[in-house]
Amino acid sequence: MKKNNALLALSAAAACLPALQAKAQQIAQDFEIGIRHYNYEEAALDEDKVLNQQLDRYDIEVNQFRLVAPLSDTMQLNVDYQHEKMSGASPWYTFQLPGEEPKQVMSGASIEDTRKDYAATLKVALDRDVLSLGAARSTEDDYDSTSFSVGYAKESEDRLTTWSVSADVSNDDIYPVDTETFRTRPDTEQSKHSNSYLVSYARIMNKHWLMKIAAGYSRKSGYLSDPYKQVFVTGSLIGDSRPQKRISRTLAMQNRLFFDEYDAALHLDYRFYDDDWGIQSNTVDLAWYQNLDAGFQIVPSIRLYEQSEAFFYESFHTEQRADGNYSTDYRLSEYGAVTYGLKITKAFENWALMLSGEKYYSGGSTFLADAESENPALLDFTLISVGVDFTF
Amino acid sequence: MGSPCALSFYCESEQQFDQAKGACVEEMARLEAKYSRYQPDSLISKINNAAGTEQLFEIDTETWILMQYATIAHRESDGLFDITSGVLRQIWDFKNPTVPSQEDINRTLDKIGFDKLPMEQQAFRLPVTGMELDFGGIVKEYAADVLANFIGEVGIRHGLVDLAGDIAAAGPHPDGRPWEIGIRHPAIPGEPVAKIALHSGGLASSGDYARCFVLDDKKYSHILNPITGWPVEGLAGVSVWAEQCIVAGTLATIAMLKGEEEGKKWIAETGAPYVTIDQHFRVESQFKG
Question: Signal sequence: where (chain A) (predicted)?
């Protein structure tokens, strides 16, 4: 029925009126508490991919707690705490018998570990400027990490665009365990250092379309290997050994499209990643946020991922490398992955309940990947999560 | 604003209500001081008094954006929505019903025309003596939007601003029920022709039942066409919903100015939800729910 554009033209003109622009709610109006419980379960490996009959992999139970506390009209403090309990076996090294595909050797005994993450962010919002300062700490039995971040965002006068920049530094220390038994593990404390920077530009294109473009750069240096992984090469077992430096760049685009007639929103995101280890990856995320009656929202989603392999990675190393870098870690292999997700939330007066599930499948030739030799340790996992949010 | 206004808020505390009410009253006073034609020292009065002279005015951002808005409204209505058309009321005096001569009308038309204005924010003037700006057709709706926005900022999520029929909702009732708005019947006071459920956004109405006169069996509406200078034989009333009350008001005004049949057709084509009442009190409604 719509034949003239008066409504659209006038709405666009009215949207510029300063007093009609919703004061960007940079600072939360209420206290919010969020609690989440996640159960992450990696599927057992196929028997024909494993050499040592250890098929079970990681299970992780995660509890998350978040507090958002408005301190004043211009200040807000976010505090996050996360507790993870991990148990299971993890891939050690690959081994290839003549005429067969490489097989995985798993860590024999079950590994138990607990990780605790603490993070706090202080946000200061002055009209169209938002400054955020953050600090985070993460500890495991054999690992701790400290990081600091600073971010600044500015909205344009018409509040249709937002520019933001952020920088992040972190320092991780790792003290490998059981170095007496496993001689490939470094027996001294190892450190790595990381700096990352992100610039983003978000724009409200029109009433139904919000777009964000972000570019990131990150530089890691120090001990970037996995002390628990090994590589079997020319008859001997050596430690996973990676370059001492890794520079990566990302370019991402996010779109939010709103459909009045369905009372729904489509999230369509794309991310390109490229690093100097030779890994390039493409990620596409699609999610449909459907609002339903009685405060229900249902979100089906799909994520497609693929990456190329690192230059020093092999599913099984048959030759010595001049640079001394070796890894058979499946995370450095060429692979693709598909994640199917479904989330349901129900909003009540001042609290909300959420339930979500994800199924992840990865493989050497999933999505766009086309690996010559699929890494035997590529995993599938299931992630189930329940949560509640309160505002008061 | 010279008309009854009602603010309905659900508040958590007396203090919050006082804060919201205070902010609203203050904001209304600010807009009144700036845009009222009846306040001699308002910006609009100053500009109007200097019409035809060389005196230049610098227009503040808010007013300038309202002018830009009026430009779009003028364009989208093919010149029917014109904030310089207020001078027609000098010859169409609805308190003393007479029909002006065509000469009078033509003389007045010379002082009308939004496209005559030099759109210079730093150096604005009305180029013709006797020309007048009148934000009356915009500012009350704008004020409703502003207030609804304001109370949201003090944390009120359930409230309704009603400035003499220009309505803006700041969220439904706390249990999620919409506000029930009755659309007046042109001839039977207190008898709504339609009930509209308002969850959010703005609702504005325009009609000729409030002020018109009948002379020699002919009805003269107070809705005046700025191009012909004559009253419009249009709809009896139209109510429109849009995200912003100011937009709803403009659409309703344009629909009235277009005349009965054309107005009905045009408002349907905008895609905005509406209710029209024609001179035979036939109601057409395009409201969902």
Answer: 1-24
